[in-house]
């Protein structure tokens, strides 16, 4: 088994870059070497894991079109077209194995394409790597897939399934983890700068240069999230295909000329591993959740125990635990409870103003509401409880804002009002960096047209427990 991490900026393609691609010469040279290597390897099946294929929260997209096509028309280039035969036997086997493992492989029908605005055509995360591969080698079938937003354990298991399904068909395969690294390497780049950007890229490249694969799973999720990368999950799926074997990784190039990190790297299967990487990943997850539980304060603990009690008994916690503080019993405030699973939102419900006699009872009610009555999600089930992580925000009383200069999305949450319509957004949310972004999202939640309607604005602060 052989795998590669390949970047996917369309600017690398000369017909698109029109000379700008020369600023990425190290990447182009590395892609040339990789393409030569692939041609010598002669894979019968190429799997591309793309972050720009349809990505779902809890399902792995699998393209089930008999023939998969794409072109460069989106970038103003006509006549450059790609057409690949899909191996539907492998695709169906992947879906079958996913079901056996409790995972979901999602096919996208024509109806779903229209409803959700997604496509089964080849995305640029797939097109760019294939553009360079097919310069040297074309005699392969294509498996077009993506990752999803589940945790490391499930990403790894999906990679294991990809390999098993291919081996069952006795095919020689190559897996491409398509992805760029940090998108926040430069103030001049299209996504701005974050200090975590170069920090993440430097660490990831160093680990790959040293074939230190196991240490990849020690990288802080906050670091990778703030770096705004799109390739790490692709890598984690790829690694699952090597379960049971030691991996030698080799970095061919790394650069970031446009404020985005491009890394070309290879993964080679060596002898049998002395221990299971899957077991280590499972243990790391259990250890992390254990540390979170051990460091819960009274607010978080009460939210968690309230939801757990309701799930198991179908009634609200009928007593106030003795660890609850005097302040939680005497003061009243609006409270938001957020629940996450595998780093993804699982439910969030709150009250702007207090509705219960104290903060403790506000938490109890809103924890249950977040787990059961958030219309975006199904009800929390008992088998999920050990995987859930909680945040509790205690809101200050809202105050009217006379000028947008009084807003700061990192410090203040906002409430927008127009008649009976109302929208709220908490402060310091990932990806919400400007006042305009914050207000637009809050207006969208309220059904207010940000560009054409006047609306009132209030701000508030939160006391965050996490």
UniProtKB/TrEMBL annotation:
SUPFAM superfamilies: AMMECR1-like (SSF143447), LigB-like (SSF53213). Residues 275-302 form a coiled coil. This is AMMECR1 domain protein. The lineage of its organism: Bacteria, Bacillati, Bacillota, Bacillota incertae sedis, Caldicellulosiruptorales. Residues 294-466 form the AMMECR1 domain. GO terms for molecular function: ferrous iron binding; oxidoreductase activity, acting on single donors with incorporation of molecular oxygen, incorporation of two atoms of oxygen. NCBIfam families: AmmeMemoSam_A. Keywords: Coiled coil. Pfam families: AMMECR1, LigB. PROSITE patterns: AMMECR1. It comes from the Bacteria. It comes from Caldicellulosiruptor owensensis (strain ATCC 700167 / DSM 13100 / OL). The keyword Manganese does not apply. InterPro entries: AMMECR1 (IPR023473), AMMECR1_dom_sf (IPR036071), AMMECR1_domain (IPR002733), AMMECR1_N (IPR027485), AmmeMemoSam_A (IPR027623), Xdiol_dOase_suB (IPR004183). Signal peptide: none annotated.
